[in-house]
Design the sequence.
């Protein structure tokens, strides 16, 4: 049984205060990944504690988008402390809502956070089977969405739309064209945020201004280029919660489909990182490219990564739908610990150099096909 969910403010220590401006402005890029988004909550909680760091922009998809928007709403209300409290309230509400739900609704709730195969136990197999035979317009005609009410309670979207710091970039996929759509602060709404996390096999497409949208993970998980082009920060920290690599080949049907999902939702990020690496190489090889301000901006970008994917992979695919409060707190603690380690090891690199070698990771040596 889940442990009682404490009131959000009961265990949030006050954020440190400083009269001086942050020493470094960061852009954050937050991946989606179901309940594993609680790991990102822990990362954000630790970063918010450090007033040497400010946030220029945050790009997020699905659970990453929810973390980003909840943080921004709390920040608008009462700064760093408000952002930390809002994040804890959101994840507390996720756990409490799932605990109160019926077994049937709990399965759908878990599937929404993870994916159809990662839903709760036997119900996961049921949703997988139903999803292959019926569309959500048939088996979920009322479009039941357990997170919608939670987000509506926690987020003041009017305050988010009025705020300028941090700048938000929430990704969704336009159904008609398959193109990436980015929702920025003035455009953000409950529908826009739910569109970013809309799995089309479980929920109706979210319609906004006559256009239908699905999960942003298909086209940007998360999208990096809005951060590069529209914020003043030259340091970008990617918080990655999907594994880049698995050393074993899946052999059962569920694991194969789950790995396909991981590759699908990670592919857009790999393409963007490869493009950034290619452009940075171009600038070094061809000085004239620096005359283009957008290319020069990419050349100056310093990329950092806090990779929880390998750590989270050990929990298995079903954990993406595990909303038990004790498990969410475990992920939160892990995220905090890894963020604390990253700050100790790499804070002095901010403003100086990248800590991820994009060329080595994403490009072949110069001259090779």
Sequence:
């Amino acid at each position: 049984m889940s442990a009682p969910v404490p009131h959000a403010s009961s265990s949030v220590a006050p954020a440190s205060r400083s009269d001086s401006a942050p020493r470094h402005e960061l852009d954050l890029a937050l991946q989606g990944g179901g309940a594993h988004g609680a790991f990102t909550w822990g990362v954000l909680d630790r970063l918010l504690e450090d007033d040497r760091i400010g946030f220029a922009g945050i790009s997020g998809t699905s659970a990453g988008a929810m973390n980003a928007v909840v943080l921004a709403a709390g920040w608008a209300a009462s700064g760093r402390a408000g952002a930390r409290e809002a994040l804890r309230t959101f994840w507390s509400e996720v756990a409490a809502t799932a605990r109160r739900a019926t077994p049937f609704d709990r399965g759908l709730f878990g599937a929404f956070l993870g994916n159809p195969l990662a839903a709760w136990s036997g119900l996961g197999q049921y949703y997988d089977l139903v999803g292959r035979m019926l569309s959500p317009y048939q088996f979920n005609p009322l479009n039941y969405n357990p997170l919608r009410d939670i987000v509506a309670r926690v987020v003041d979207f009017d305050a988010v739309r009025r705020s300028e710091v941090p700048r938000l970039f929430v990704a969704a996929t336009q159904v008609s064209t398959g193109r990436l759509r980015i929702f920025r602060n003035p455009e953000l709404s409950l529908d826009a945020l739910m569109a970013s996390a809309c799995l089309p096999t479980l929920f109706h497409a979210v319609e906004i201004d006559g256009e239908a949208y699905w999960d942003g993970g298909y086209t940007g998980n998360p999208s990096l280029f809005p951060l590069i082009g529209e914020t003043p920060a030259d340091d970008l920290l990617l918080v990655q919660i999907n594994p880049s690599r698995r050393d074993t080949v899946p052999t059962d049907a569920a694991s194969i489909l789950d790995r396909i999902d991981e590759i699908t939702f990670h592919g857009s990020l790999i393409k963007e990182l490869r493009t950034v690496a290619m452009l940075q190489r171009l600038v070094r090889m061809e000085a004239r490219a620096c005359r283009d301000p957008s290319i020069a901006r990419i050349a100056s970008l310093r990329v950092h990564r806090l990779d929880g994917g390998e750590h989270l992979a050990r929990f298995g695919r079903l954990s993406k739908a595990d909303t038990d409060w004790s498990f969410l707190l475990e992920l939160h603690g892990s995220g905090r610990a890894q963020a604390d380690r990253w700050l100790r090891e790499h804070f002095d690199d901010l403003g100086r150099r990248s800590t991820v070698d994009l060329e080595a990771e994403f490009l072949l040596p110069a001259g090779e096909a």
